[in-house]
Amino acid sequence: MTIKIALVTGGSRGLGKDMALSLAKKGIDVILTYNTNKVEAEKVVSQIERSGRKAVALKLDVSDIKSFDKFISELLISLQTNWNTNKFDFLVNNAGIGVTLPIPQVTEEAFDNLMNIHFKGVYFFTQKSLPNMNDNGGVVFISSGTTRFCVQGYSVYSSLKGAVEVFTKYVAKEFGQRGIRANVVAPGAIETDFNNAAIRNNPQMKSFVASQTALGRVGKADDIGSVVAFLCTEEAKWINGQRIEVSGGVTL
Predict the structure, then answer these.
(1) Domains in the chain, please, with CATH?
(2) Hey, which bits of 9-106 come out as E strands?
(3) For 11-31, what is each residue's pLDDT tens digit?
(4) At 132, is the secondary structure helix, strand, or coil?
(5) Is 154 one of the catalytic residues?
(6) I need a surface site. Which of 166, 180, 187, 217 has the fewest CB within 10 A?
(7) Which CA distances in Å does 227 have to 19, 24, 141, 222, 233?
(8) pTM over cut 0.90
(9) Integer distance in angstroms from the first to the last C-alpha of the chain?
(10) Given 34, 123, 154, 157, which residue is catalytic?
(11) 3-state secondary structure of 147
(12) Alpha-carbon dihedral of residues 28, 31, 36, 42, nearest 10 degrees?
């Protein structure tokens, strides 16, 4: 059986960590990236290896577009060293930050930083990754429920995620001839350390969000990772160019 390999950006914590673990449960080996927290990334690698899959952690700053060529070189060395190949199968564009900024408080610097992380970095990292991916693989973009409904202070973040959703369709269209699928997973409110653990650390917000969700609770990391992993399996081979919201039915 051919070994499949997934690259997950921002895989050291939160949603990315669970995506990496969920992919391993599906029998997929994982390369995960981290920006600052190497220790946590190595813990995820160890957890995956204990499950019987192979994993590697590499440093990547998705806001530093000029560093991508160097990263791709390191990635190819890692693929050759650990898997005796120069290709991988799935890219999960997960890395990101959360910032609550009402429109009057948005500075050009803050806008540019969010743009680099959430759209420009995603665009060019995907562009540089695709030549190094096997045919019949896939790209999963992580968006947000807030492209469908508004959360005050998320005007920049959500607009950039909206751009990612449009870009996803173009990747699906332009790379479909190679059998490469591209889809969006759009989480609702999730109880992680994202945006300074805004939901986890605020019981009132957590209660409010739960009350807006048809299933009556906020999301957890493992609500998302399993859907991402599913999209990287043969069972999802005919899903392409789609936005899948994983929010428990919030604001229906």
Answers:
(1) 5-245 (3.40.50.720)
(2) 29-34, 55-59, 88-93
(3) 999 999 999 999 999 999 999
(4) helix
(5) no
(6) 166
(7) 8, 13, 12, 9, 10
(8) yes
(9) 43
(10) 157
(11) helix
(12) 70
